[in-house]
Amino acid sequence: YVMASLHPMGGVDWELFKKHLLMLRDANIKNLVIYLFYPPQISDVNKYFSWCDDHNIRFYVRRYIGEYAKKTHPQASPKELLQHILSNPKTIEYGLNLHSPAGNKCSAGKDLILVHHDGRVSYCADIDNNNLGNIFDSDFKLSNNDIICPSPICGGDYGLLHMKDKHYPDIPNLLWHDCFVAQTANITGGNNEPVQYPHRREIICWMKRNEAK
């Protein structure tokens, strides 16, 4: 599947983004939209979610890690987001408490890759200067092997999904992300234990509360 990131650093051309999402859907390629819960664009989430919901495209929000307006996030994030982060022990270990992933075994490049706008492929966003080829090349293939992470930091998705250690299953059977909203009721972890994400109706309730503020 393709995780299509609507990210402020990439610039937001919503009309072109929608066109590409529909192109993927028409080609029977599963896709979902990642929306960074960055403070300046929190209020815009409603219009993006509504369109994705109308077109039956899964939409979820990622936590923002960093400084904004002299506040540290995600610690200063809304209550709903913090509740989800603190409910998932893997998110705490890899998303908050991991000071450096360097030296740990990771399956980035094998099970998940970062694809740039021009087709260049990297292990992940934190070592995106490492060009593994181009997704448009006919002979491009994913790696068969894990890597030893060379990055001093981990943005989250790769650590949460792909960092390998004795505490967690190697790879989840289905999606297991650090989102706090998801349009599905049937996400499970690596041992088929249910992962309790808010369902669509709860997303809509949250948006109504957000509008009221």
From TrEMBL:
Identification of the protein by name: Uncharacterized protein
Q: Which organism is it from?
A: viral metagenome
